[in-house]
Amino acid sequence: MYFQASEDDFKPQKPLDFGTSSYALRPAMYDDVTQEQWADWRWQHRHRIRKLDDLKACFELTDQEVEAFVRSEDSFRVAITPHYAALMNRQDPACPLRLQAVPQEGELTTYNFELEDPLGEEAHMPVTGITHRYPDRVLFYVSHHCPVYCRHCTRKRKVSDPNTTASRAQLESGLDYIRRTTSVRDVLLSGGDPLTLSDERLGELLKELRAIKHVEVIRLGTRNPVTLPQRITPELCQLIKDFGPVYVHTHFNHPDELNADALAALQMLQRAGAVLGNQMVLLKGVNDSKEVVFTLNRKLLYAGCRPYYMLQCDMAQGITHLRTPLRKGLEIMAYLRGRIGGMGVPHFVVDLPGGGGKIELLPEYLERTYDGPDGEVLVFKNWSGERFEFVDAGEK
Ligand code: SF4
Q: Residues lining ligand 1, CB < 6 A?
């Protein structure tokens, strides 16, 4: 059912559109803001929308959104950068960017199968702030803050909570663990968002990690290119250059997020030698559409950022309303293959609950097998639905 080509697949695609800077789209409440202020990431941070009155001044909110804001305020705060707010539809509650940042009614419903820590990250913590699950890799939590608090965040249990801020002592103890654990070859700086740290603090961390002989790979997981592209400054890029290669995993979920500012940010990172990859989360109403993912991945490739993962949304508390059936992900994978080069086809993965790790899912291309005169014959269906026979090599 997944595999079917049509004449439309062979027609020229619409040219990519990165639009304008978000400054040109800013909500009326920012009318007096200068372009220089808008381009300053510290200004953006200070002027994030955090209160209901500010949200109401910016958007036409539904009664359900107001109620969800009030009732979720204590458990998972709201923060939206002026940049991200400018990209959203102010009238339409179904706007795919708005669904990611403005609390929804669905957050208030909890289910028995939902988990506070869906990936068992706390259970695999040899020291506070380090998750060590695979032999060679660690996740290093260096900040629990983010420019925008995504409603689908899998770490709602601690992200946005001021009581969980990583102290200097905690960062030191994390570095110390990595120094004495020689099996660790790969360190992912995560959070929250590591780019909420100052350049100075981030530079210290990168320098310390680079000085550890057994650390071969340094990665940075950040949504700043999406929610606060102004954070990608020449000073930050210099750090990436100095301590590179740094693999930057970002998190675009919808093509409208990749506007002119985000494109410029990705290009700056790329010129600084960062190796860019995107980790998209499949979300109902946001990107559970093959056309949306196709366009996003075209834009990402143009920007030099490889679509790396398409992640099935975790079983975290209060995000079930955003989850999609696995079948939807498989349908999107089958659509992408053949219609976009292999670099534009991400790995579709499920991160298993309790710390089981990632598994990859693929559409079923193998239809049947039979014994032929020269060995086993496998009958495959390709991306467009045509059948092909492949004689296996056997074990001789
Ligand atoms: S940027 Fe990442 S860590 Fe921060 S709220 Fe969004 S999903 Fe969670």
A: 146, 149-150, 153, 155, 159, 191-193, 223
Q: How far is the CA of 273 from the centre of ligand 1 (A)?
A: 24
Q: What would the pLDDT profile of 89-120 be if each residue is shown by its tens digit?
A: 999 999 999 999 999 999 988 888 888 877 77
Question: What is the structure's pLDDT at 250?
Answer: 98
> Region 9-19: what's the mean pLDDT?
90
337 flagged as catalytic: no
Nearest residue (by CA) to ligand 1, atom 1, is: 223
CB-side exposure of 256: number of CA atoms within 13 Å? 15
Active-site entry in 26, 40, 77, 134:
134
Please write the tens of the pLDDT for every residue from 64-74: 999 999 999 88
CA 305, 311, 315, 321 torsion: positive or negative? Answer: positive
The Cα 254–Cα 280 span in angstroms is 8
Are the C-beta atoms of 351 and 345 separated by less than 8 Å?
no
CA distances (Å), origin 395, targets 164, 378, 383: 56, 15, 28
**Distance, CA 224 to ligand 1 centroid (Å)?**
10
> 261 φ, ψ to 5°?
-70, -45
Average pLDDT over residues 288-304: 97
Bridge partner residues of 47 (DSSP): none
pLDDT value of residue 396: 63
Residues 6+ apart with CB under 8 A from 216: 185, 186
- Cis omega (within 30 of 0) for bond into 245: yes
| CATH number, domain 122-360 | 3.20.20.70
Residue 289 has pLDDT above 70, yes or no: yes
- List 26, 90, 133, 179, catalytic entry: 133
137: annotated active-site residue: yes
Under DSSP, the state recorded for 116 is S
Token digits for 104? 């929804």
pLDDT of residue 256: 98
> What is the rounded CA–CA span in Å between residue 14 and residue 12?
7
Mean pLDDT on 190-214? 96
